[in-house]
Each structure stands twice: as structure tokens, then as C-alpha cells.
Amino acid sequence: MEGGVEVEVGVGTGSGTTGRADVALLATGFLVAGAISIGLSRLGDGIAGVWFANAFAFAVLALSKRINDRLHVTPQAEFSRWPNTFSHIFAGGYAAGYYSYKWAEVLSADVYAAFEEAAKVSGTVLDTTTGARYRDEILAVGGSREAMESFIAFRGRAPQVDALLRHSGMSAN
Question: Is residue 132 packed enough to be buried (19+ CB in 10 Å), middle (13-18) or exposed (0-12)?
């Protein structure tokens, strides 16, 4: 096989199936990205349920099971206590921070997409013109103007989620 390493796919299944390591790792990365996105959705739904739907009328673990049943392909394990891992949210008003992580991913992927688009012309994502524009419109201005203004100055438009979905393997494009 040229340019790849053969590995057993489905280790421990006894299938004896082999495949390229890079393809297996890419697929694993997409699976993890999808699981993280579902987890964040589950967390957001849980927060909304607890705070806005009078969820205190029943147990938090029962709520987590309802959310899991609605959003996940696999059943929630009986021993799962995932809401406990987010107790700091309710203790300190930190809930919005979790949404900012996903927003940062949207911005990052969209910025990188500008380099991918430039690579179609220049032949490399290390395009100097795009890099200089990034330096001038994002890095050099720092906090002297609103972050959204800097993004629009660099990208020529508001952020879009398409690149994040594509980079995460959640889009056919």
C-alpha cells in the first residue's frame, strides 16, 4: 500500500479487516467531533431544562436521562452522572462560557477556511497574502475595535458555520 500504514480495523472483533491508519484516525476524529457537539447540545439542553422549565420538580438524573434519550444514539449508562461534572456552572454563573467555546471554534474554522480558499489559487494554505491580511485585520488591531468588526474586515462577511461542520466531518461539502 502506498503512502499509508495498514492497521487492523475493528481491533478485538476478530474480523481481520485492515485499513489505512490515516483513514481510521480521520474517521475517529469525526466521530469524536460529533460526540462533542452532541454533548454540548445535551449540556445546553440540560441547562435550559433545569433553569427555564421548572425542572426542579424532578430529579436531575432523570432529566439527564430524558435529554440523553432524545439526543443520543446510545442509551445513557445506569452509572452515568454527567450532570455532576458541570456543577461549577450552577455555582458561579459560568454557563455562557460553554457556548463561547463553540463560537470560538466557528470563528477559528472560518478563518482557516480563508487560507484553504487562498490555497486553491496559491497552491498552499500558507498563503502570504492571506496571512498578511490576517495579521493586519485581526492580530495588529488587537482589542482596539470590536472582534466582529475585525473578523468582517478579514473575511469580508460575518462568520459562517460551514467550515466548522466540514472540518468536523459533519458536512458533505
Answer: exposed
